[in-house]
Amino acid sequence: MIRIGEVYTGAERNAQAEAGIAADEIVCAVEFGTGAFTGQAFEKFTVRGANDFATASVAVTAAVKAGVVSDCRIVLGGAALRPVRCLDAESLVIAHRTAEIVPDDVADVAVSGARAPDSAARIDVLQALVARAMTRAFAV
User: Fold this and answer.
1) pTM of the predicted model, to two decimals?
2) Looking at the chain, which terminus has fewer C-beta neighbours within 10 angstroms, N or C?
3) Of 118, 89, 114, 84, which Cα lies nearest the Cα of 9?
4) Contact 40, 62 (CB under 8 A)
């Protein structure tokens, strides 16, 4: 078993590889933990429509108890050659009250290290998607 973060290391070494698994390997199962996440949101931007590959995407999960964030995960798709977890942005919300969270501020930090492969405009899209996903996941 390998963690998802280990699967996507291949694209950084070889832009033609989508995953860091060998040609003779196959993913036969995926396991998800049963964390205490109370909110989640996924946002994507596509050029053509719902069935198109996302140009940019954001996933946010949140664990909130008594109005205080105990855990948060923010992941960007399309910001680099692999999904990017935004640890600095996550730290802005963990241990804070949901009423104190400013989605636009979190979005600024989330995209600060993004290296979109082809366009600075993609960073602007990701920033908007982070703010929207934060609003949905935390209901702020």
Assistant:
1) 0.80
2) N
3) 84
4) yes
